[in-house]
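Example 508, ligand flavin-adenine dinucleotide.
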Amino acid sequence: MMAPGIHVVWFKRDLRTRDHEPLQRALQRASLSGGRVLLLQMYEPGMLVHPTTSSRHVTFQWACGDDVAMTLQQEKWGLTFHRVHAPVLDVLDYLRMKHGIASLYSHEETGVLWTYERDKKVASWCKKHGVPWCEVAQAGVQRGRSSRIGWVESWHDNMARPCANPDLQEWRSSEGRDANVTWPENWALNAAPTVRHESDLQGVGPFQPGGERAGHSYLKSFLHEGRIQAYQKHISKPELSRRSCSRISPYLAWGAMTIRQVYQALESTVQGRNHHAFGSRLRWHCHFIQKFESEHALEWRNVNRAYDELPVKQNEEWLSRWKEGTTGIPLVDACMRAVRETGYLNFRMRAMLVSFLTHHMNHSWQDGVEHLARCFLDFEPGIHYSQFQMQAGVTGINTVRIYNPVKQGQEHDPEGHFVRAWVPELKDVSPEWIHSPWMAPPMEATMQGWSSQDYPEPMLDLVASAREARERMWSFRKRPEVKNEGRRILARHVVPPRAQTKGRMREL
Ligand SMILES: Cc1cc2nc3c(=O)[nH]c(=O)nc-3n(C[C@H](O)[C@H](O)[C@H](O)COP(=O)(O)OP(=O)(O)OC[C@H]3O[C@@H](n4cnc5c(N)ncnc54)[C@H](O)[C@@H]3O)c2cc1C
């Protein structure tokens, strides 16, 4: 008779050792029933060629895995962290044949269509082979919800629950429980695998370092070493936000830390205005992922189907210039170059890039969504697709915002430090003209060292294109089909009116 088999903990976007319920449960189960445990992360070939994947994501995940491995070693867990390069079903087949699988543990993943389809195949495989798959909800997101009634309350309950930390004392006192698995040679990995399709994005960094430790150290310096003090003041500033915002998003996105851990750390500090603003955003994080969990078609089609009729352009030259940061509009170019190179951009500037793409350029949001997913180190499908659609104005329930990049620059980068850092062609231009060098009188422009040979004229007329966008978006918004769809969206994704909101529908 075959041995009872191993308990496999499948690490997905949850690359950590603390507040990890699948890990906690697997260790408990093995301690009680005597089975062996395998901690496993899979770099799946299909995901490595996915249009949203970039090498910065894979390198970050790899560093998170290194950190997990280091914790296991330092804390003497007696377990190894395994990383293989192979499709999940092949790996499961291999493990079943060689060792037998007693159970599979993982978090529920609110991912792109590719991972959703993959998980459906894993579920069938488990059913076919009689392997129980224990899938645990990520804190703050609930599968199978059809409305938002009671969502906020249950979110707070969830956040206040104790973190699911494995009981190491109990675990260590049990005998050696490592599954001791060896892998076929062509699956083994010594370094992060390569992302081959990445021809249009060669970011050089420096990127934020991956890992549980790095994530908690960003959080600590934000909450306890003063960075939070200027949070609200700097949140919309492209340069200052890099220090005054928490910068925890990649750690949350790849699961090196959890929203619950952050919430509890925040609760234990003295609260003020900045703390409150930051706390709301933790809830927004889950709100957007919940939206995507309930309607994953957001990945490829307009949430408000009536916008399928919106006329859009297809100007390949403009699109390449937007992606490369050579539109001739300084703030747009600085933002794109900064995010390509460092993987980070604050909220307001992300919104402005999407507004420029969809409103000024009149392209569909689908034309830019994968490019920025690859650029953002913190790519989180649930937030990314929902935010893209909101900023593109195709939800029919949110205010349409058409950002003027010159005005945004004057307000949030008045001296032009950010623009000069990322668009060195403009390094000698004075603050007066830095956000609109083409408006400078010719003599002055030459004296300041700006010439359209070094840095191009704007590729479009900002004023005329914004006016056209306003007309297009507002006339569309009045259509009965848009309003009908809007009502459906509100019923599904929005918290219903409450007494304290005076009957208004709220996003959260
Ligand atoms: C077009 C567009 C795409 C975006 N794509 C992503 C994405 O792929 N991944 C991602 O994490 N965020 C995304 N955001 C939201 C936001 O810009 C980032 O979360 C934020 O800039 C990350 O920086 P921070 O960690 O310093 O944020 P902080 O301001 O310090 O906020 C703390 C955390 O709250 C959450 N948060 C903050 N703002 C928002 C928001 N507006 N919506 C939802 N959650 C929020 C994030 O998890 C963030 O890490 C996107 C925004 C836009 C406009």
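Summary: The domain at 305-489 is CATH 1.10.579.10 (DNA Cyclobutane Dipyrimidine Photolyase, subunit A; domain 3).
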